[in-house]
Specification:
about 110 residues, 7 helices, globular
Length: about 110
């Protein structure tokens, strides 16, 4: 769960103005969020890498499927297409109710951290 869970998504120019101070606050906040959900303050590298890959894949799909980016633009900004099946891609791009999102999150959380 990223710091955006608590503070919302800060735009890059705002982060740049704060220089390295934002990263320090973000790191402490992320540790606190992890502890709140019963996780270690710092996750193992393989989990952190998987989260970053999922985030880049989501950004790629949002850019190409929702925001009108060309594939070449999206690849340059977010890396390669995550290569999801058509059914997973459709499911990802279909809005969920809050109840369904909560259920999906808790099921996945239990599977990963049980």
């Amino acid at each position: 769960m990223p710091p955006e869970y608590v503070i919302g998504d800060m735009i890059s120019p705002f982060k740049a103005v704060l220089d390295g101070h934002y990263k320090a606050v973000e790191k402490r906040l992320l540790g606190a969020i992890h502890i709140r959900f019963g996780l270690p303050p710092v996750l193992p590298d393989e989990i952190t890498l998987a989260i970053k890959a999922a985030d880049r894949g989501a950004a790629y799909l949002e850019a190409t499927e929702l925001a009108g980016f060309s594939e070449s633009e999206a690849k340059r900004l977010f890396g390669k297409d995550p290569g999801l099946s058509d059914s997973v891609r459709r499911d990802y791009l279909t809005p969920w109710t809050a109840a369904r999102a909560e259920k999906q999150f808790l099921e996945r959380f239990s599977a990963v951290f049980a």
